[in-house]
């Protein structure tokens, strides 16, 4: 009987915390112009990227990163589309944004980030998750459609809407354990991105 090899992803996806601020800045500054424009829905200057990255980790919502050999190579954000009822609950509608460095695409990072963001959204009280992108962003459109998002084209932009199921007690417990583990990784290996990039 042949033994099948266990396939382990070459990256780790975890929540980002304030200790990751430098890794987030370095990541955004490394993005090529096309990827940066796709992520921000238009051209953004280096000063604009620096300003965004400086506040991103502390803004309402959550961020997740995909790390390869200690370097942040993909990033997903979940941001509320309205006032948040509490510190732990987002508004019922939220928006997700993703980007993966060009050299690290086609490895499942985008799909892993999307799945992690959708799971987090569900456990933060989000019912309708939206993904906006430029209409020419084929990879993002395919990823949204693969996860069941209904796509609506609006000129040069496309909105993907995904209705999320309510969390269960077990899924809430699991999410709490996952976030505690993510925090432990973040504080155990601070600023590895600068050393590894």
Keywords:
197 residues; acyltransferase activity, transferring groups other than amino-acyl groups; globular; alpha+beta; seven-stranded mixed β-sheet; N-acetyltransferase domain-containing protein; disordered C terminus; Aminopeptidase; GNAT_dom; Acyl_CoA_acyltransferase
Q: What does the secondary structure layout of this molecule look like, with pairings?
A:
Layout: E1 12-15, H1 21-30, H2 33-40, H3 46-56, E2 62-68, E3 71-80, E4 93-100, H4 109-123, E5 128-134, H5 138-146, E6 150-154, E7 157-163, H6 169-188, H7 192-196
Parallel strand pairs: 4-5
Antiparallel strand pairs: 1-2, 2-3, 3-4, 5-7, 6-7
Helix pairs in contact: 1-3
Give structural notes.
About 40% of the residues lie in helices and about 25% in strands. The chain is of the alpha+beta class and about 200 residues long. The protein has a single domain, classed as Gcn5-related N-acetyltransferase (GNAT) (Aminopeptidase), CATH 3.40.630.30. Strands 1-2-3-4-5-7-6 form a 7-stranded mixed β-sheet, with helices on both faces. A hairpin with a 2-residue loop joins β6 and β7. α1 (about 20-30) runs antiparallel to α3 (about 45-55). It starts with 11 loop residues before the first strand and ends with a helix. About 30% of the residues are buried.
């Amino acid at each position: 009987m042949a033994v099948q090899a266990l396939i382990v992803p070459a990256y780790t996806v975890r929540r980002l915390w304030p200790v990751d601020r430098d890794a987030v800045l370095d990541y955004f500054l490394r993005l090529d112009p096309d990827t940066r424009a796709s992520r921000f829905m238009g051209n953004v200057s280096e000063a604009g990227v620096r300003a965004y990255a400086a506040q991103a980790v502390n803004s309402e919502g959550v961020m997740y990163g995909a790390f390869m050999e200690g370097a942040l190579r993909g990033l997903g954000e979940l941001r509320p589309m309205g006032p948040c009822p509490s510190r732990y609950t987002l508004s019922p509608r939220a928006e997700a944004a993703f980007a993966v460095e060009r050299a690290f695409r086609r490895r499942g990072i985008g799909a892993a980030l999307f799945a992690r963001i959708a799971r987090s959204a569900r456990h933060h009280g989000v019912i309708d998750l939206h993904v906006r992108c430029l209409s020419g962003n084929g990879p993002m459109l395919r990823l949204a459609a693969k996860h069941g998002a209904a796509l609506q084209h609006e000129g040069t932009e496309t909105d993907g809407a995904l209705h999320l199921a309510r969390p269960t007690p077990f899924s809430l417990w699991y999410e709490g354990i996952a976030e505690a583990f993510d925090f432990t990784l973040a504080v155990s290996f601070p600023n590895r991105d600068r050393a590894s990039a």
